[in-house]
Specification:
The protein is an alpha/beta fold. The protein has one domain: Rossmann fold. Helix content is 56%, strand content 12%. It contains 9 helices and 5 strands. The chain has a 5-stranded parallel beta sheet, with helices on both faces. α1 crosses α9 and α3 runs parallel beside α5. The longest helix has 25 residues. It is globular and about 50 Å long. Bound molecules: thymidine-5'-phosphate. Thymidine-5'-phosphate binds next to α4.
Length: 216
């Protein structure tokens, strides 16, 4: 069976990163080879771009510059990691991909969709994930979790996106839901407003629909 490119999307604080790791363990336990990665980043150059992208010192990054940075990281990521892994038959689980750019830079920042689609075509040659899990929850709940002191301590302080207001995150949530509505064959919506275990139960069902693992 061909390797799958599966992306995990949602607001900061939606739980997608925690569940990505668990989904990878679940796949490995089922005998599949998996590579976990993330955007922006996933390569040494991409992680350097990520540092710039999130650095709160750059308060007024022009929205197109923001998009160009994240797509530069994405191109390198596809070239260096994602495409070679898929070619080698390794499944790739990726924390965020182009849907994040359409939601954050498009709906959140107000960049025109055709401009972003053109940039996407140039940077990714139209590469789409095979399936996307969207971790959905109210922006208020995500904000509370995403900025919890414990999480921030672990991750080294507030980043540029943490400073944005609730209205921005509400737009981004709606943007993600619109993307999912437009492409129901690719998206699986996970209600992540509950606790970790109730979210995982949905993720496990979703993963079972996407990949075939060896019965344990
Ligand atoms: P992360 O904390 O989930 O790794 O994401 C870092 C931030 O980068 C998050 O606030 C969302 C933002 N982001 C974009 O704005 N556009 C993108 O295309 C990506 C991949 C991330």
């Amino acid at each position: 069976m061909a390797a799958s490119f599966i992306t995990f999307e949602g607001l900061d604080g939606s739980g997608k990163s925690t569940h990505l790791k668990r989904a990878a363990e679940w796949m490995r336990a089922g005998g599949l080879e998996v590579r976990c990665t993330h955007e922006p980043g996933g390569t040494p150059l991409g992680d350097a771009i990520r540092g710039l992208f999130l650095d709160p010192r750059w308060e007024s990054v022009e929205p197109r510059v923001e998009a160009l940075l994240v797509f530069a990281s994405r191109r390198q990521h596809l070239h260096e990691l994602v495409e070679p892994a898929l070619r080698a038959g390794v499944n790739v689980l990726c924390d965020r991909f182009t849907d994040s750019s359409l939601a954050y830079q498009g709906i959140g920042r107000g960049l025109a969709r055709p401009w972003l689609e053109e940039l996407d075509r140039l940077a990714t040659d139209g590469r789409r994930p095979d399936r996307t899990l969207l971790f959905d929850l109210p922006a208020e709940t995500a904000r509370g979790r995403g900025q919890s002191p414990k999480r921030r301590q672990r991750e080294g302080g507030l980043d540029r996106f943490d400073a944005l207001d609730l209205a921005f995150y509400r737009r981004v949530r709606d943007g993600f839901l619109d993307l999912a509505r437009d492409d129901p064959e690719r998206f699986l919506i996970i209600d992540s407003s509950g606790d970790v275990e109730s979210t995982w139960a949905q993720v496990e069902v979703a993963m079972g629909q996407i990949v075939k693992v060896r019965a344990s």
